[in-house]
What does this fold into?
Amino acid sequence: MAVGIFDSGLGGLTVLDAAQKRLPDVDFLYYGDNARAPYGVRDAEDVYQLTKAAVHDMWDKGCDLVILACNTASAAALRRMQEGGLPQGKRVLGVFVPLIEALTERQWGDNSPPREVEVKHVALFATPATVASRAFQRELAFRAIGVDVEAQACGGVVDAIEDGDMILAEALVRSHVDALKRKMPHPQAAILGCTHYPLMEKTFQEALGPDVKVFSQGNLVADSLSDYLTRHPNMYGNGAGGFFTTGEPRRVSDRATQFLRREISFQAA
It folds into this structure.
């Protein structure tokens, strides 16, 4: 039995790591489309087609439930896949949901009218594609009113992290935070809208200052997944766990091992 976790590259490993710690008895199948990463600079149609193909491959491998642990894929493909109809017994979920639940303090199934929330000024840090989609703002507007969201496209950060250049990644984060603060000098909360960014959470927090609450995705997604599986115990799937990549397995395995600081072995998808 395996739950699927998909990302264009290595960022989804932050979600996988949190999910494995939260759900140690659950098998996970991780699928990285490393050959075509990063998604954050692709157009929406391209991201949709690539995500759809990968998810169908994961369903074929025995995953009934697939988590899009990629904000760009969630922004460009999730709602379109869900509205287009899913195969019987198959589900696909994204990573925006737990963030918005935490920010608005209301469950996803709460369909009451939008209401005011405590946080009024929110900084969103994400890839250029996620920012361009305005998917986070759209989903937030269904649940909250009076929230000002200022989005900052963080070009280069994902590439630096994937290349293992954390010094460059840190410098880029500080530069993007400075750019955001020129537009919104006093954010109350910050959303790290990319699954790579938890690795830079400390840098984001330091650059933003101690008074800004930073929402990162790993643990939020893991807790939400645990709750979902409790309510839907039939969604564990019937396939085996493992690590799959469209890239070169040895190279991806080496990068993933450095990324999580434990041995990870990928096989060709």
